[in-house]
Amino acid sequence: MTGVDAAVAEAHQRGWAETLATVVRLTRDLDEAEDAVQEAFVSALATWPRTGVPRNPVAWITTTARRKALDRMRRRATLARKLPLLIVPAEPDDFDGFESPDRGESTAAAGPQDDRLRLIFTCCHPAIAPQAAVALTLRLVCGLHVPEIARLFLVTEPTMAARLTRAKKKIQEAGIPYRSPGGDELTERLPAVLAVISLLFTEGHTGSQGTTLTRPELLDQAIRLARLLAELLPGESEVTGLLALLLLLDSRRATRVGPGGDLILLADQDRSRWNTDAIAEGRALVERALRTARPAGAGPYTVQAAIAALHAEAPTAADTDWPQIVALYDVLLRVHPSPVAALGRAVAVSMAAGPSAGLAELDRIAGDPRFAHYHRLDAARAQMLERLGRHTEARAAYRRAAEAARNPVERDFLTTRAGEAETGPSRA
Q1: What is the pLDDT of residue 114?
Q2: How far is CA 426 from CA 102, 117, 271, 388, 423, in A?
Q3: pLDDT at residue 396 is higher than 90
Q4: DSSP 267-297
């Protein structure tokens, strides 16, 4: 990869969503804006080898994309002849921000001031099926690619590509306006927005693309959006719970890989290097979320944050309150059943009641077709088998997990463990 190629790739990672959010305010048409942004990146590949990489590549891309969008608009006889995503005429405040609190509006009524967060709320329109809306937002607003999104949803790439195509067609047919949702609209769209931010963080936590374990730019973006959402909706327990969850998980960022870039499991991490400020803030937010969730009960993000808090509170891996974690997974599976939660519970059972009990749980859930391409089920099985001294079976499970893993750091770790399971001793 040349220096220009690397600069364009970095600008895409850092600036795609920001640029798209800026341009869509101008075009009011998401397809038109996406085309303009893509053309701007193509222009960068053609121009920067001659002129040099600009001091602020993202600003250059944004300016170029705006100009290309304006050129497209000038060439149109009229915007009404298109099939626009955003054809509803804007009110005066639609693109310059919501009514601010000092004009007598509440923060929730004021809506998100951040372009990217506002665009996420726009894409998560109730006219679109929730999963499709989340997937489309991750693609268009957050800049994730189809393989990355497919991995997050535990589906194949062709299935996800078809889902995205149907979602874009639905948006065109519905004529959804790019405007600021407020009041009840914010609440109605909130679950999808929370899912977008959570999945964005998940991809950053263990990237399916690239050569490193994490994608820091996605982690930082997700946490920033969660903070903005918490400022916008301070009374929503699930918003508070999501921010708590992200902070608690991210507190381990510096200890998840060794000096050589190799993966370090949670049990083997140096807890003295965990981010204590993030843990303290996350624990306080968990307590607040649990208080505000009553009497309706905690939602899935608050429950997951409580699980993360138990890990953060344990001074050593051996001190982890695994029975309480199992109980919290039981709650999570009641309020929001998912294959990932079921796998997490199985791992917690293996730690609380022994690897044989954990394997029984894995056998119970393994038939879920969504696990067909999910390497972590085989990785969990391998660790349990290894603890039981069943090294041949563990080696085979590690190899299956390594073959399915998309992240190279995870893949190398699993391959190494497969070799160690050849004759190695059982590991806890």
Answers
A1: 67
A2: 63, 47, 23, 7, 9
A3: yes
A4: GGS-GGGS-HHHHHHHHHHHHHHHHHHTTT-
Provide the β-strand partners of residue 263.
257
What is the spatial distance between Cα 152 and Cα 104, in angstroms, rounded to a whole number?
41
The secondary structure of 10-61, three-state, reads HHHHHHHHHHHHHHHHHHCCHHHHHHHHHHHHHHHHHHHHHHCCCCCHHHHH
146-153 helix and 184-205 helix, angle to the nearest 10 degrees:
100
Residue 102: per-residue pLDDT: 33
Rounded Cα gap, residues 300 and 242, in angstroms: 9
The alpha carbon dihedral of 63, 69, 74, 80 has a sign of: negative
- CA–CA gap between residue 336 and residue 323 (Å, rounded): 20
Assign residue 121 a region: left if phi > 0, alpha if psi is -120 to 50, beta otherwise? Answer: alpha
Cβ neighbours for 367, distance < 8 A, ≥ 6 positions apart: none
Helix (H/G/I), strand (E/B), else coil: 99? coil
Q: Are 27 and 36 in contact (CB under 8 A)?
A: yes
Per the CB < 8 A criterion, the answer to whether 20 and 37 are in contact is yes
d(CA 346, CA 330): 11
Residues 6+ apart with CB under 8 A from 71: none
- Residue 379, class by beta-carbon neighbours within 10 Å (0-12 exposed, 13-18 middle, 19+ buried)? buried
Q: Is it true that the peptide bond before 295 is cis, omega within 30 degrees of 0?
A: yes
Identity of the residue numbered 26: L
pLDDT at 251: 97
